[in-house]
Amino acid sequence: MPEKLFDKAVFSLAEVARSIQKAIAARYKSVYWIKAEMNKLNHYAHSGHCYPELVEKMDGKVIAEMRSVLWNGDYRRVNQRFIEITGEPLKNGVTILFQATISYDPLYGMTLRIMDIDPAYSLGELERERQESISRLKKEGIFQANKGLSLPVVPKRLAIISVETSKGYADFLKIVDGNPWGYRFEKTLFPALLQGDKSIPSIINQLTRIAEHSDAYDAVAIIRGGGGEVGLSSYNNYMLAAAIAKFPIPILTGIGHSTNETVSEMVAYKKAITPSELADFLIRRFHNFALSVSRARDIIIQRATQLLAVYKTSLNDTGRYFRLNSIHLVKQQQKALGHGRIQLNMASIMSLRQAQQQVLNAQQGLKTISLASLKNTKVDLTSTERSINLLDPQQVLGRGYSITRLNGRAVKSTDGIQKGDIVETSLASGNIISTVKELNPSDE
User: Which residue intervals define the domain OB-fold nucleic acid binding in the entry (predicted)?
Assistant: First the structure.
């Protein structure tokens, strides 16, 4: 009952709370089906109880919020069935249709006790989100982007997004490292969470790291195993699928399931059901290339052997032909050399005889010319001697001529002679000394 205070009825807080408790208990006697988003599951492992935070949003804004409780026994039953139907455990952010009682506690306030959850409704919500991601990726024109890239013939350099302790990663390494042909891969591990809500930013962050050095890798492998069909809804998330679709090098997935294909797998370059299948794909790609190289090598060897056989036969034929022709040619040359030797001997003899005859002829001609030349020279000498004798001054004087000298010089004209000069006249038989008394120069 309220107490009187200054003529006012005053209720205590406990009285108000108990009143609300009674009103709600009287009003909400049944079990109700309620739809809400489980913003946070708040599962406590030590007790096994969950205290989900339930919200309703409109245009991204929270318009209603309420606490709830899911006791340990109910949680294990509901969660197991949820996994069987949806392939996912109860987790943050999932929209659920649940059956609950409504109660109010004076100490803890309004509470919804979750009795059951309809996984079929959540499955529909997950599928709706999946389809929305697909439609958005196609509308943006990036749905086939990663598939349009070119995977190297031998994708040797791999960036692997996985967990080092993952069974799927261990299976993958066992196959690629233990392949019977000894093919070697260069592997770099980028650790990330692989399931649950936190896997989305974790994988995207590692993709961002790899993209910064994308030229160092041939492909990215996202490897998840050991979790079965559970925890795959994160791979339907638009942000993760878009990051894969737009990635600059091919992305290969092996996330370990065999039912519904996730959006991330749809947009990836290559999808394998398991990490082991992905490892087999890579080894087959190596082996197919090795086989083509081996076939090419065999063809080259076969063709080279054929060509060598053909050339060997041709060479042998050429050798025989060369030997036969060489022998024939040598014989011809020997025969020609013999004829040449005979002709050379005959020509030498004839040339020698001709040379001897030419020498004799030259000797005879020289003798004849010499005699004629001597004879002519003798005649010329006789004639010259006669001419010289005729020019002898004594001979000239003997023919009645005389030479007059003045001071020892022969006088040829009256020039330079004066009266009274003494001149000497030479005759054939003596000299006359005269004194010039008169000069009679010629008129010329």
Answer: 11-117
- Neighbouring-strand partners of residue 188: 159
* Strand stretches in 314-406, DSSP E: 403-406
Of 160, 70, 165, 72, nearest in space to 117 by CA:
70
Confidence band for 340, pLDDT divided at 50, 70 and 90 = confident
Give me the architecture of the 11-125 domain, per CATH: Beta Barrel (2.40)
Distance CA 369, CA 378 (A): 14
Polymer length of the chain: 444
Pair of tokens at residue 299? 């063809």
Annotate 225-279 with DSSP letters as a single string: -SSTTTT-GGGG-HHHHHHHHT-SS-EEEE-S--SSPPHHHHHSSEEESSHHHHH
Q: Which CATH class is domain 140-271?
A: alpha beta
pLDDT higher than 90, residue 424? no
Parallel/antiparallel/unpaired status of strands 270-272 and 251-254: parallel
Going by C-alpha positions, the residue among 70, 14, 9, 11 that lies closest to residue 40 is 70
Residue 404 DSSP label: E
Residue type, 153: V
**Could you tell me what percentage of the chain is helix, strand and coil, using 3-state DSSP and rounding each to the nearest 5?**
50, 20, 30
Contact between 95 and 36 (Cβ < 8 Å): yes
Residue 219 has a pLDDT of 97
Dig out the tokens for 219 from the structure. Answer: 């492909």
Domain locations in the chain? 11-125, 140-271, 395-435
Q: Please, which pLDDT band fits residue 258 given cuts at 50, 70 and 90?
A: low
- Angle between helical axes of 119-139 and 72-86 (0-180°, round to 10): 50
- Report the C-alpha gap between 59 and 101 in whole angstroms: 28
Only one residue has tokens 């069974």, namely 167
Range picked from 89-98, 135-144, 324-333 for highest mean pLDDT: 135-144
Give one DSSP letter per residue of 14-74, joined into a string.
HHHHHHHHHHHHHH--S-EEEEEEEEE--B-TTT--B-PEEEEEETTEEEEEEEEEB-HHH
pLDDT value at 361 more than 90:
no
Distance (Å, rounded) from C-alpha 444 to C-alpha 13?
Answer: 191
pTM (two decimals): 0.58
